[in-house]
Design a protein that fits this description.
The complex is a heterotrimer of chains A (about 120), B (about 150) and C (about 500).
Chain A (H helix, E strand, L loop, with lengths): L3 E7 L6 E10 L4 H13 L4 E12 L1 H16 L3 E5 L3 H10 L6 E3 L2 H9 L1
Parallel strand pairs in A: 2-3, 3-4, 4-5
Antiparallel strand pairs in A: 1-2
Helix pairs in contact in A: 1-2
Chain B lengths: L6 E7 L6 H14 L4 H21 L11 E7 L3 E7 L15 H7 L5 H9 L2 E7 L3 E9 L11
Antiparallel strand pairs in B: 1-2, 2-3, 3-5, 4-5
Chain C lengths: L8 H57 L3 H16 L1 E9 L7 E9 L15 H10 L2 E2 L3 H9 L3 E3 L10 H6 L5 E8 L2 E11 L8 H26 L2 H19 L10 E8 L7 E9 L2 E9 L3 H18 L6 H16 L5 E9 L4 E7 L4 E5 L6 E3 L11 H5 L4 E4 L3 E7 L1 H4 L10 H12 L4 H16 L8 E8 L4 E4 L9
Antiparallel strand pairs in C: 1-2, 1-6, 2-3, 4-5, 5-6, 7-16, 8-9, 9-10, 10-11, 11-14, 12-13, 12-15, 15-16
Classes of the chains: A alpha/beta (about 120), B alpha+beta (about 150), C alpha+beta (about 500).
C-alpha cells in the first residue's frame, strides 16, 4: 500500500490554478509532507488550488486540519481551495462530520475551474 | 464467516506517527473479520487512529524506555466492541480539549480538538482514565446491533 | 569377589550399582526426615489452629458481653499463659499519659519478675511483686520489653541467665529459665508487648512452635485490645457516635489490603462502609495452589460488638477455609462456632465461594445472603442463583445444615457478581430503593465490562440514582471472570518512511 505521494501540475486553461493530486493517506504522519508541499506553493505565490482526492484512501483529523488551514490561507490571499472527487471513504468521513458543507467539493476539473475563476 | 466472540486482540506499538497506517490496517481488517456493519468500520478505524495519534503526539515528550509502549486492545463481545488505547507516558490530554461542534472548530480557526470530537461522535462511549505514574487509558465503546434487530437511524 | 587389577566391565557396573544404592539410601533417609518434619509441622498447625479458634471463641463471648479493657487484658493474659504452657506472663501497653514513649505492665499473672534494675527490696509476696512489675516504666529500646517494642519483632530467650538485657535482680526474685516476648502489632503499629516466662514443666524451654502460637495469639489480641482501648478512652456521650466510627475504621482494617493476582482470572472487590450502620466485609483466601476462597458477608450487629464478631468470623473462616473444599461444609462449621459464641443476638449473612482455577468452576453456598448473579456467555439475561441456606448464628444443627451448594462453569460465563443488600437498597431522596431490577438491567448491558469496570459503572449508576443522598448501609461488591486471552501482535518497529 502506498503511503503518501503528491503530484503537482498547472491547469493548461488557467496556469495560475495548481492541481495537487494526493495519493495514499493523509494522517498525522503524512500531514507534515502535505504542509511542506503547500507551504512551498504558497511561498511561490499560488492562491488557487484544486486538491485532487481521487487517489486519497483516508483522511484523519490532522489531514482535515491541514485542509482547513490551507483553505483559510488561500482565502486570505484572495484565493480558494477546491476539493476534487474524493473517494467514497473520504467523502463519507467529511460528510459525516459536516465538512462537505464547509469545503467546495467538485465532481470534475471543469467545475472546479469554474469556481476558481468566479 | 466471522471471528468467534469474545475475541480479544492486543497490538503493541512504538510511539511513531508512521505506525498509524499499520494500526488502522489491522483494526479495519479485524473489524471486518468480526462481521461488524460496514457503517461502523470506518468510524472505528478513524477513532482508533485519532486516539493513537493523540498518544504519539503528546504522551512522550522524552523517548520512552520501552520499544512498544503503546497498546491498543480490542475486545469484541457479543453486544459491544471495546477499544482501549493505553500508554505509559505523561498523559494524552482528555475530553476537555474536544470541540463541541464542527461550527466551533471552523469558527475558532485553531484547528485543534477535532480528533477527540471525532472519537466522541463516532463511538458510543469515550472515556479518558488517567492514573498518575501509569499513563492514560482511552476507553471507547461501540455497541453492536444484533444482525436481525431493527435498526433505527444512525 | 576377587578384585582384578584391570577392571572388567562387570566390576564397574557393580561399583556403579553400589553408588546408586548408597545414594538412594541417603535420598530416602533425607526424604523420610523431611516427611517427619512435615508431619510434625502439620501437627503443630492443627494444635495452633485449635488454640486460635478457642481464643476467638472466647473473644466473641467477651465482645457480646461488652467487657472492659481490664477484663479483656486479664483474659488474654490468662489464655496465652495457658496455651503456651508458661508459668507466668505480663501484658505491657504504651502508657498514653506519659510524654515520652513508655510501656507499663497492665496485667501480670504468676511469678513474673520486674524487668528493670530494682533497689534491692526483698519482694516475697506475689501481690507486691505484681505491683512492682506494674509500677515499672520501660522506655522504648530499654531492656527486653523495650527492645521488642522498638523493633516490632518477637524475641525467644532460651537461656535467660545468659541474657544481658535482663537485670541480675530479676533472677534473684524469680529463677528465670526461658522467656518469650511478642509485640502486639496492628499492621505496623506496636501498641504493646506480651511476655511469658518459664515453661510450667520443669526443665523444658520455650520452642519455635510456642513462638509461632504466641505470634498468632498476639496478633489477634492486639486488634481486640486496640479496639477496647479506644472505646474506653471515650466518655459515655462520645461513645455512641464514636463507636460507629471506630467500628467502621475497624471494618476497614478487616478488608484485604490488596487483591491477590490470580492467573487466568480477573477479580475486583469494593466495600464502602456507611457511617450509621452495617457490618459488611469481603475476603479472599488462598486455599491451595489451585483454589481460592471468596467471601462476602453482612454482620447484623452494629458498632464494636458487631465489628468484633466480624473479626472473629473472618479469622474462623481463614482458619477453616484451607481444611475443606466444600463451601457448604465450611459454612456449617463456621455456623457452629458463631452460634455458640454469639448466643443468637448477632447473625451474619454470607456467601462463600470456592474458585477452582484448574476446572474453571465456582462452587458456592450461601447463608441467607443475597443471590449470586452470573451473566452467561452469549445470553443477555443475567441468572440469579439462590441456593438454600439460612444466616449464620440463628440456629444450629439440622435446620442449618440444610445448605445447598451450586456450581457455575466460568468457561461459559462472562461475569459473576456477589453483593450485599446495601447495593439494591440504596435510596434516593424520596426513599425509593435502587432495586434489583435496575441492578440486573445494568448487568444486562454491561456484562462484558469486566469486574473492575462493572463495579465502577454500578457505583456511578447508584450515585446517579441516589443523587448524593448519604448511604445508610454498607455497599460491598465482589466480581470475577475468567481472564480473556488476547491475541497479541507486535507492530513492526520501523515502518517505511515517506519521502
Amino acid at each position: 500500500m502506498k503511503t503518501f505521494e503528491v503530484d503537482i501540475r498547472s491547469l493548461d486553461s488557467s496556469p495560475d490554478v495548481r492541481v495537487i493530486a494526493l495519493n495514499g493517506y493523509l494522517d498525522a504522519h503524512t500531514v507534515a509532507d502535505f504542509d511542506r508541499c503547500t507551504d512551498e506553493l504558497i511561498a511561490a505565490g499560488t492562491v488557487k488550488i484544486i486538491l485532487d482526492l481521487q487517489g486519497l484512501s483516508y483522511i484523519s483529523s490532522a489531514g482535515i486540519g491541514a485542509l482547513m488551514g490551507l483553505s483559510q490561507r488561500l482565502k486570505k490571499d484572495g484565493g480558494e481551495l477546491v476539493l476534487l472527487q474524493p473517494t467514497q471513504k473520504v467523502f463519507k468521513i467529511l460528510d459525516l462530520l459536516g465538512f462537505t458543507r464547509i469545503f467546495h467539493l467538485c465532481d470534475s476539473e471543469d467545475e472546479a475551474e469554474q469556481i476558481l475563476r468566479s | 464467516m466471522s471471528l468467534p466472540r469474545p475475541f480479544i486482540l492486543e497490538l503493541r506499538c512504538p510511539v511513531e506517527m508512521s505506525i498509524l497506517s499499520w494500526i488502522r490496517g489491522v483494526i479495519a481488517q479485524t473489524a471486518a473479520a468480526l462481521g461488524l456493519p460496514e457503517e461502523d468500520l470506518s468510524k472505528i478505524e478513524m477513532s482508533v487512529d485519532e486516539a493513537c495519534a493523540n498518544v504519539i503526539e503528546h504522551a512522550y515528550p522524552d523517548p520512552p524506555e520501552e520499544a512498544l509502549p503503546l497498546t491498543v486492545r480490542v475486545e469484541a463481545m457479543t453486544d459491544a466492541l471495546r477499544i482501549m488505547v493505553c500508554d505509559s507516558g505523561v498523559g494524552a490530554g482528555d475530553l476537555r480539549g474536544a470541540v463541541k461542534s464542527i461550527e466551533e472548530y471552523v469558527e475558532v480557526k485553531r484547528y485543534r480538538g477535532l480528533g477527540t470530537h471525532i472519537m466522541q461522535r463516532f463511538m458510543d462511549e469515550v472515556e479518558f482514565v488517567q492514573s498518575p505514574g501509569e499513563g492514560t487509558r482511552v476507553c471507547m465503546v461501540k455497541y453492536l446491533t444484533p444482525p436481525n434487530a431493527t435498526v433505527g437511524s444512525a | 569377589m576377587p578384585i582384578l587389577p584391570l577392571a572388567p566391565p562387570q566390576f564397574w557396573s557393580v561399583t556403579t550399582l553400589l553408588v546408586v544404592i548408597v545414594a538412594a539410601w541417603i535420598i530416602i533417609s533425607l526424604l523420610r526426615a523431611r516427611i517427619r518434619r512435615l508431619e510434625s509441622a502439620i501437627a503443630i498447625d492443627t494444635q495452633e489452629r485449635e488454640s486460635v479458634l478457642l481464643f476467638l471463641h472466647r473473644m466473641g463471648e467477651m465482645a457480646t458481653n461488652q467487657s472492659d479493657l481490664e477484663a479483656t487484658l486479664e483474659f488474654i493474659t490468662e489464655f496465652i499463659i495457658d496455651e503456651t504452657g508458661a508459668s507466668a506472663g505480663a501484658i505491657y501497653l504504651h502508657d498514653p499519659q506519659s510524654e515520652v514513649p513508655e510501656l507499663r505492665a497492665r496485667v501480670v499473672q504468676g511469678l513474673f519478675p520486674p524487668l528493670r534494675p530494682t533497689t534491692g527490696y526483698v519482694l516475697t509476696k506475689r501481690k507486691y511483686l505484681h505491683d512492682k512489675v506494674k509500677a515499672e516504666r520501660i522506655g522504648l529500646g530499654e531492656g527486653v520489653v523495650g527492645h521488642v517494642a522498638k523493633e516490632g519483632e518477637g524475641l525467644l530467650i532460651l537461656d535467660a541467665r545468659a541474657e544481658r538485657r535482663l537485670p541480675t535482680e530479676a533472677h534473684e526474685l524469680v529463677p528465670l529459665e526461658s522467656m518469650m516476648l511478642m509485640p502486639l502489632k496492628i499492621r505496623e503499629e506496636v501498641i504493646g508487648v506480651f511476655a511469658v516466662v518459664n515453661k510450667r514443666t520443669h526443665g523444658q524451654v520455650f520452642t519455635d512452635k510456642d513462638m509461632s502460637l504466641l505470634r498468632t495469639l498476639a496478633d489477634q489480641a492486639a486488634v481486640t485490645v486496640k479496639t477496647v482501648q479506644i472505646f474506653e478512652e471515650l466518655t459515655q456521650q462520645q461513645r455512641v457516635e464514636s463507636e460507629l466510627r471506630i467500628a467502621s475504621d475497624f471494618q476497614r482494617l478487616m478488608l484485604p489490603t490488596q487483591m491477590p493476582s490470580v492467573e487466568g482470572f480477573e477479580i475486583a472487590a469494593y466495600c464502602k462502609p456507611a457511617l450509621e450502620m452495617g457490618g459488611d466485609y469481603y475476603d479472599i483466601i488462598r486455599i491451595d495452589e489451585s483454589h481460592l476462597g471468596l467471601v462476602i458477608a453482612d454482620v447484623s450487629g452494629k458498632g464494636v460488638p458487631g465489628a468484633l464478631i466480624m473479626s472473629m468470623v473472618r479469622s474462623a473462616l481463614r482458619a477453616e477455609a484451607p481444611r475443606r473444599l466444600s463451601p457448604a461444609d465450611v459454612l456449617r462449621t463456621i455456623n457452629q462456632r458463631v452460634y455458640e459464641d454469639t448466643r443468637s443476638n448477632v447473625f451474619i449473612t454470607m456467601t462463600y465461594a470456592i474458585l477452582d482455577e484448574r476446572a474453571q468452576t465456582l462452587h458456592f453456598a450461601r447463608a441467607g445472603h443475597e443471590p449470586v448473579i452470573a451473566c452467561p456467555t452469549g445470553d443477555p439475561n443475567p441468572v440469579l442463583y439462590t441456593p438454600d441456606g439460612i444466616a449464620l448464628g440463628l440456629t444450629d444443627g439440622e435446620i442449618f445444615d440444610v445448605m445447598e451448594e451450586l456450581v457455575i462453569d466460568l468457561g461459559e460465563t462472562d461475569l459473576v457478581v456477589l453483593y450485599t443488600d446495601g447495593v439494591v437498597e440504596a435510596m434516593d431522596e424520596e426513599g425509593r430503593e435502587y432495586g434489583q431490577e435496575r441492578f440486573l438491567d445494568l448487568l444486562h448491558r454491561q456484562c462484558d465490562r469486566g469486574p473492575e469496570g462493572l463495579i465502577q459503572d454500578l457505583l456511578s449508576d447508584i450515585g446517579d440514582f441516589t443523587h448524593g443522598i448519604p448511604q445508610h448501609d454498607d455497599i460491598t461488591l465482589l466480581a470475577l471472570r475468567r481472564r480473556r486471552e488476547a491475541h497479541v501482535i507486535e507492530a513492526p518497529l520501523r515502518q517505511g518512511q515517506t519521502g
